[in-house]
Amino acid sequence: xxxxxxxxxxxxxxxxxxxxxxxxxxxxxxxxxxxxxxxxxxxxxxxxxxxxxxxxxxxxxxxxxxxxxxxxxxxxxxxxxxxxxxxxxxxxxxxxxxxxxxxxxxxxxxxxxxxxxxxxxxxxxxxxxxxxxxxxxxxxxxxxxxxxxxxxxxxxxxxxxxxxxxxxxxxxxxxxxxxxxxxxxxxxxxxxxxxxxxxxxxxxxxxxxxxxxxxxxxxxxxxxxxxxxxxxxxxxxxxxxxxxxxxxxxxxxxxxxxxxxxxxxxxxxxxxxxxxxxxxxxxxxxxxxxxxxxxxxxxxxxxxxxxxxxxxxxxxxxxxxxxxxxxxxxxxxxxxxxxxxxxxxxxxxx
Length: 350
Hints:
Helices cover about 45% and strands about 15% of the residues. The protein has ten helices and nine strands.
């Protein structure tokens, strides 16, 4: 934050330009950009906008006046040229922000897909104009549309967002993003040293990698996943023990029947197949019921899942195969013991 070191707007703009140039020359740095607020910082900023051609009858510019309608809400992020390339956000329509979008040029913004869908559902938003004041609806031009990204939260869908040029709205403090050609953690020291050479008194805080930042936001999901894995493992163990006990009891009750079958010419493989068929029938029925219950319950935990659908087919297939494999082992042990029964002993068993 340059203002903590008594930078005014003019010096701050020059400082940002110097930082972009010198940070971009660090070996291993592919691109450099600034933004405010930072990625996944939990800090958000929104404003009312008034789009040219939209009806705002009865709208009020007073955000604290709840009895009258306000404008359309748009979240805002201030970014420098190269921001979208640094974070890997693809352009869908129009153009990105450039060095020419400064305080001397007309005001422009780039919006995300959510904003385009919400406010320009059947129209091309590129070239449309809006303003933060209801009296002036042509101050700001939309020059591009980029793909939605979970910039503010990993759990919530991206809101309607506009990216404004940092050169047109100088911020007192920014976050520096550096895309690297190798391990980003290896460049943290070089970035810090470069900033110190520009101004040793410039406050630099909280340097981290994007992966570490994302991991820090997934604490709840990670805890939930570990708890599910623990209880899932316990459930699998209990199911296997139960199946083993049930099949052992079934074999013990059918010892006489097994002896008769073997006396009449049944082979050991036939006995194993008989017991395994009964075992797998119960397993298939149980897995089927469990899958139906899992799909139904998946909607209840969808908000706790990140990057995974409630009915993820790969996960379901893997879990089903594990359950079938463990159950097959649990059923095979009693089946093998049944196949070793001496027919004469089995015939005398009641």
